[in-house]
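Hi V.,

Quick status before I head out on leave. The structure for the redesign project is tokenized and pasted below; the design run finished overnight.
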């Protein structure tokens, strides 16, 4: 059992580590036209209706057909492959969807985008601590989950604005020195949004 858990943990670490080179490559590609998510209209439904259910079946046997289709020795490799494919297709599909729904610059979306990496890094210990606090509350989960998400999101956005955004931590996470200097004058990027809007007109 210990060996199985160690193997599972190793697979998870490899899967997580493999994400960063991919997104670094995408960042360096400067895909300003959105080519990567261009096919979101088929990528999202195929992922949700085909790829994800197959990955779930391979991992858990939920639907009861994995042993009839794949020999047991191939389950781990196939599971990792379908999980990776599902995550990539969903990511690229969502990128294309949001480019389609939000084609113009938005200062709110830009702000949330800038803060996203900080929220991603800082949320886990807070989620664990908050879960320990509210787990004994006599409330249904469909109330506690949205409540927990809303409170932590607001708290983390406040910490980003006042403790991270215009500091060396913010520059380290996702801001260039030029952008940091712009933020010192225009914290919410209003001038940049006006420039982009004027250029498109």
């Amino acid at each position: 059992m210990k060996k199985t858990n160690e193997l599972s943990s190793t697979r998870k670490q490899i899967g997580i580590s493999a994400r960063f080179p991919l997104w670094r490559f995408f960042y360096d590609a400067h895909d300003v036209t959105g080519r990567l998510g261009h096919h979101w209209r088929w990528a999202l439904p195929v992922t949700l209706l085909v790829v994800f259910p197959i990955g779930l079946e391979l991992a858990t046997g939920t639907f009861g057909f994995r042993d009839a289709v794949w020999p047991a020795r191939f389950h781990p490799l196939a599971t990792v492959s379908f999980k990776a494919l599902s995550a990539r297709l969903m990511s690229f599909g969502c990128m294309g969807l949001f480019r389609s729904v939000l084609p113009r610059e938005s200062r709110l979306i830009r702000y949330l985008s800038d803060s996203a990496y900080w929220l991603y890094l800082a949320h886990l210990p807070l989620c664990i601590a908050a879960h320990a606090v509210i787990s004994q509350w006599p409330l249904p989960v469909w109330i506690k989950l949205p409540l927990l998400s809303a409170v932590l999101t607001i708290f983390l956005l406040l910490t980003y604005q006042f403790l991270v955004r215009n500091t060396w931590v913010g520059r380290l996470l996702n801001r260039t020195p030029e952008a940091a200097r712009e933020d010192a004058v225009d914290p919410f990027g209003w001038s940049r949004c006006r420039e982009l809007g004027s250029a498109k007109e």
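Above is the designed sequence. The chain has a mean pLDDT of 79.

G. will cover questions while I'm gone.

Best,
W.
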